[in-house]
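Q: What does the assembly look like in three dimensions?
Context provided by user:
Components: two
Sequences:
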Amino acid sequence: MARRKSQAALEFLITYGWALLAILITLAALYYFGILDFAKYLPDRCLFTSQLECVDFVMKNNEIIFKLVNNLGEQITVQSISLTNDATPPLSCTPPAAGFSWNPSDEKDFTFTSCSGGGFIKNEQVEAKVTLTYFAPATPSQPLHAVNGKIQGRVQ
Amino acid sequence: MPKAQAALEYLLIIAMTFAIIIPTVYLFFTYSRESNIKIIDFQISSIGRNIVNTAESIYYSGENSKTVLEFNMPEGVNNVLIISNKEVVFNVTTDFGYMDIVFFSDVNITSNSCSGNICSLSPVATQGFQKLRVRSISNGKQVLIEKE
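A: Here is the predicted structure of the complete assembly.
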């Protein structure tokens, strides 16, 4: 009697085990082909702090261009600007020249060229993390400050 | 046969429900996380501007003038510093990483915990309700900002 019960239990597990395996393989395939990557359904956006507000951006022809406005109320000098993401290999671009002065309320275009890696492919959704360091020339010790931002959009 | 049909319909309904719920939950959490970053940014901007504007107002009001600022410090603030008697710097950690939110004062500001040209306001860097006393010192030539 007990043997018949255990056989039934084993058969049950084997039957549903196959079903579970089939579901897992299907899910893995969907994930592999990017169907479960819901991030690509998010709208394009450019997020920075309100002090260096992002006005507009575009990703096209191996370039990432974004426009920031200086809302700090003070003239600053941009020391460095870099861009990357969490992909393997990460997004890599040639940064624009730094070391320029930036007056309050002025808008600046930042153009990163020769972008590669990090999933930077035409018609694909890409996320880029931007780090900008600056100092205020009017402050005697001129301490460096870092600001981070994020750009997410589709490569045109 | 009707049992099998019922089971299949049940599975289809469950699958459709998950297909709707999982992306919706993901999108909702992504939006709420980014909204949270924006809210923290605006809260710190409001506090920083308030500190700087009040310091300038106290400075121009002259010697012995003082006031108390009350505000709610948001999460993620690691430290608050006054650098070179000019910059009020909030060291903040967000999902974007570690960064500075800086406010520039036109008047000479300080705190009562200074080392070199860096003065600390770390007691107010903890999340929650905070009070800052802002008062004119040094014959009206400097504004002291300290925890109430």
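Follow-up: The mean pLDDT of chain B is 90.
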